[in-house]
Each structure stands twice: as structure tokens, then as C-alpha cells.
Amino acid sequence: MTTFDFDIAIIGGGPAGLIAAGQAAEKGAKVVLIEKNAELGKKLLLTGNGRCNVTNALFKTSELVREFGKGGSFLYSSLSRFGPQDIMNFFEERGVKLKVERGNRVFPVSDRSTDILSCLYGYLKEKKVNIYRDAQVINMIVRQNHIERLILRNKELTARRYILCTGGKSYPQTGSTGDGYRWATMMGHSVTPLLPSLVPIKVNNDWVKSVMGLSLKNVSISSFLEGQKKESRFGEMLFTHFGISGPIVMDMSQHLLELQKSGKVHVLIDLKPALDENKLDARLRRDFRKFSGRKLKNALNELLPQKLIPPIIDLSSLDPDKQVDHIDHGERLRLVSKLKGLPLDISGSLGFKWSIVTSGGIELKEIEPGTLKSKIIDNLYLAGEILDINGPTGGFNLQVCWTTGYIAGISAALSLY
Ligand SMILES: Cc1cc2nc3c(=O)[nH]c(=O)nc-3n(C[C@H](O)[C@H](O)[C@H](O)COP(=O)(O)OP(=O)(O)OC[C@H]3O[C@@H](n4cnc5c(N)ncnc54)[C@H](O)[C@@H]3O)c2cc1C
After folding, report:
1. Ligand 1 atom 34, closest CA
2. With left for phi above 0 and alpha for psi between -120 and 50, is residue 68 left, alpha or beta?
3. Cα 176 to ligand 1 centre (Å)
4. Helices 15-26 and 113-126 sit at what angle, rounded to 10 degrees?
5. Do the Cβ atoms of 248 and 342 come closer than 8 Å?
6. Ligand 1 atom with the shortest distance to the CA of 12
7. How sure is the predictor about 83, in pLDDT bands with cuts at 50, 70 and 90?
8. pLDDT at position 14, please?
9. Residue 119 contacts by C-beta under 8 Å, 6 or more apart in sequence?
10. DSSP state of 352
């Protein structure tokens, strides 16, 4: 009879691997968690700007799945088994108090992602999971749709089941370098096209450098492909030295990059979405009466952040030194038009290096949704960002990891008996 070093070997010590390891060990399996970094959860520590947006308290599965687009139906049954309420209970029962903020975003009360990671460490210790750190898996030896063993830098290792949790390609500086995609392809899995998602966007317009650091609230942006309007978002955004970022831009980034494959893409920023053109024109007339005698460049302070005034005047082809009393109807309308549609030409993104998640991944049709088991390799399970599922900001992406890690861990363990 073949003897194995472990029942289950889990590759990748991010959120998916951590929860999978604990769950598998809780079901009685002898588990090893293999991580190439010196520490587990390097990316987890960066989440939510170091505060960790653990999940989203959207408790109705039917509403939750909509956030994951085409990946939503795949996730339906597993989210019903282990959804946001379950991961919140998991942490709360282990002493990490949580709070719900705007947009149902859940954070630890301490605002420290280290508390989430420490809790998971404690859990693995309690369940006696073997942890290999500084241990890079270099290859997998596969024979007849079956993984025989793993090749690490200094040793080989065998297990009865393997769970692949190596994450995506985003923020490779944290260890997520896309190794899992390479092995999955080698084993016969398909990988859908990989794109940076939730990523800052680069633009061709030089003037944005002059407003770098400016954050705008309650604005809307709309995307256009070859002049045709596509989608809009409302909320908060930020100008950077290379382009635009912030919540609504990040959430729209995947869509913008997809559009770019088909042609020229630009966005229009509506700086005053609550006012239609007529109301905005009336507002300008009121301001110009109030600031009678002033130059245009000194008469827009109540309407716009200071930094935005010069580029808006310039883009409207107006003279900043002209007295507001002499601005005519046509000139005012040019101003209104730019305030309602500040144009930016999209040139690309900051790429995987700065993208929060990777869109695309292992083809879901090749994985059993109820167990996360590969339909191609008989002793392989997959969980986390490596799958072709991603959601918007707000805790949804970590929830994918908790849910799929939990199901993969339990299913792999139960398949042993
Ligand atoms: C800056 C930032 C902020 C984020 N904030 C949030 C947030 O607040 N809320 C949210 O929901 N999501 C957030 N995300 C997304 C979330 O962090 C990821 O979706 C999540 O970490 C993916 O988990 P994972 O376990 O699938 O993979 P990862 O976290 O990427 O972990 C994979 C692990 O596998 C290891 N590994 C890779 N290859 C090998 C190998 N060959 N051998 C051994 N080990 C290997 C890596 O070192 C890594 O530790 C954020 C992402 C970033 C970059």
C-alpha cells in the first residue's frame, strides 16, 4: 500500500489556503499548508488599506451572487453553505469583534488586518496544521490525471489530495505570481484570459498631473467606446499623476480594459450629477452675479475645488482673466458642457503590479461547484482568486476565498473516508 506524507497538501497560504487548511484539519485530515513567503497571508495584511474589509454583509444569497457576474451562479450553492454571516460568526466566535460600515463593508473593530491573520494562525495551530514557510512549490508531477507528488525547492512531498490556492497575478510583490495557472494548464485545465481588475487607470491627458491628489465625492463617470455611451458609476474618485483611481474608477476598470480591446475609449466625468444643464447654467449665472467684477478664474471657487478651476477654464476654451460680467451665454454653455462631461482618454492601466484582483482564471466548467474538485485531475481541488471569479470592491473578493476555501477544505477531507 502506498504511504503518503500527508492526507492533504494545500499550496498557497493566503485567505483561501488558510481557511481550507483549518477546515480540512478540523475534519480529521493530516494537513500541510505550503507557502513560499517567510510568512503567511502577506496580501491579506494589505487588504482594506491595512484594515481588512473581511466581507460584505449582504446576507441574501440571491443578491450576493449578482455581484460576481457570470461567476455568481457557480458560487450559489457554496455561498448558501458558507456565506458572509458564517465567516463573520467564525471570526466573532474566535474573539475578533467586527463592525459594518458604509456599503455593508465589514471590518474588524480594531481596524487591523493583523487581527484577522492572527486569528487564522491561532485556528491552524489549534487544528494542528503543519505549516511549511519559505517553501516554494516548483513543480507538480502528474500521471494519468492524478497528482503523484509535489517538488519543492529542497524536497519532494506526497499527499492523497491537493488544494491549489496560489491566488492570481495581482500584486506579485506579495507572492501571487500566477504559478497555479501554469500548473493547471499543464494538467489540462483551461485558463480564461487574465486581466488586471480593480486597478488604477492611465489617461492620455497631461492636465491631470496638475490636479494630482484631488479626490472628488458624489461625481459620476461614464464610459464611451468610439463615442458610444456604455456604462456609468456614481461615487468617489481620485486624480493621480498618471490618471484616475478611487472606488468608482477601480470598480469600472475591468469594464474599461475590456472595452479597450474593441476600440478607442474615453470617459466623461460629470462633476455636478445632481444638476441638469439648465440648473447648472442658472447656478453659474447666480455665481457670476454674486462675484460681479471678478475675473473668471476667481469666480468658480464655490462651485469647484481650486485645483480644477484652471483645467476646466482651459478645456472650455475660455480666458481665465475675462471678467465674469462679460461672459456670454455661449461661453457659459461651454463651461456647463465641461462641468457635465470632463473628458479623459483612456490609455490603459497600471497593470497586475497594482491591481487589487485578477479577472479571469481557471475555467469554472472544469470544476464541480459543490465540492471545488477538478473534473480533470482526480485528486485536485481549487479555491480562491485562482478561479475565474471576481467581484467589485467591498469585501466580495475575500468572501470568494472564505467560501471556496471552506468548501474545498471540507470536500477534500471528506473524500478521504
Ligand atoms: C492592496 C490590496 C487590497 C485588497 N483589499 C481587499 C479587501 O479589503 N477586501 C477584499 O475582499 N479583497 C481585497 N483584496 C483582494 C484579496 O486580497 C485577494 O482576492 C485575496 O488575497 C486572494 O486570496 P487567495 O488566497 O486566493 O490568494 P493570495 O492571497 O494571493 O495568496 C496566495 C498565496 O500563494 C502563495 N504562492 C504562490 N505561488 C506559490 C508557490 N509556487 N509555492 C508556494 N506558495 C505559493 C503566495 O505567496 C501567496 O501567499 C485586496 C487585494 C490587494 C492587492
Report:
1. 12
2. alpha
3. 6
4. 30
5. no
6. 34
7. very high
8. 98
9. 91, 94, 95, 96
10. G
Distances (CA, A) of 180 to 58, 168, 274, 408, 410: 30, 8, 47, 16, 21
Predicted local distance difference test score (pLDDT) of residue 201: 98
Q: For residue 135, which atom of ligand 1 is closest to its CA? A: 43
What is the residue extent of each domain of the chain?
A: 6-196+355-414, 198-270, 277-342
Mean pLDDT of the chain: 97
Q: Which residues line ligand 1 (CB under 6 A)?
A: 11-17, 34-37, 42-44, 46-48, 52-53, 136-137, 165-167, 170-171, 175-177, 179, 356-357, 384-385, 395-398, 401
Q: What angle do CA 290, 295, 300 make, to 5 degrees?
A: 60
Question: Which CATH topology does 198-270 take?
Answer: Elongation Factor Tu (Ef-tu); domain 3 (2.40.30)
pLDDT of res. 149? 98
Gap between the Cα atoms of 46 and 15, Å rounded: 12
Residues 6+ apart with CB under 8 A from 296: 313, 318, 319, 320, 321, 322, 323, 324, 327
CA of 169 to the centre of ligand 1 (A): 9
Nearest Cα residue to atom 24 of ligand 1: 167
Task: Name the one residue in this structure whose C-alpha cell is 494589505.
Answer: 46
Closest CA to 17 of 187, 185, 133: 133
Q: What is the mean pLDDT of residues 320-340?
A: 97
pLDDT at 293 over 90: yes
Percent of the chain residues past pLDDT 90, beyond the cut: 99
| Residues linked to residue 238 through DSSP beta bridges, in sequence order | 215, 245
Residue 1 reports pLDDT greater than 80 = no
What confidence score (pLDDT) does residue 2 get?
80
The domain covering 6-196+355-414 belongs, at the CATH homologous superfamily level, to FAD/NAD(P)-binding domain (3.50.50.60)
Rg (alpha carbons) of the chain, rounded to whole number: 25
pLDDT at 66 over 80: yes
Determine how many CB atoms are found less than 10 A away from the CB of residue 353.
13
pLDDT tens digits, one per residue of 230-275:
999 999 999 999 999 999 999 999 999 999 999 999 999 999 999 9
pLDDT at 277: 97
| Mean pLDDT score, 315-337 | 97
- If you search the block for the grid coordinates 488604477, which residue do you land on? 200
- Fold classification of 277-342 is Helicase, Ruva Protein; domain 3 (1.10.8)
Phi, psi values for residue 387, rounded to 5°:
-75, 160
